[in-house]
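Our preliminary data section would be incomplete without showing what the modeling component actually yields. Below, a chain of 59 amino acids is followed by its predicted structure, encoded as tokens that our downstream tools consume directly.
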Amino acid sequence: MKMRNSEKGELTHTRHDVFGMDFHDFMVKEQNDTSLELASEFGISLREVKNIKKHLNRS
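Predicted structure:
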């Protein structure tokens, strides 16, 4: 029996990131880049950078 894959299912399996962003890459770059550089690099706001850093520090 062959299973059908939806576009959404394929996208989920082919991408290893969340919300279009690679968090491993973010963690590596956060050590050397400023918040403004991170926001620019990942296309997110400064507030989102602050929230992500806050959540990463809790883990």
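The helical segments are 7-14, 23-30, 35-42, 46-58. The chain has a mean pLDDT of 76. Preliminary results of this kind motivate Aim 1 of the renewal.
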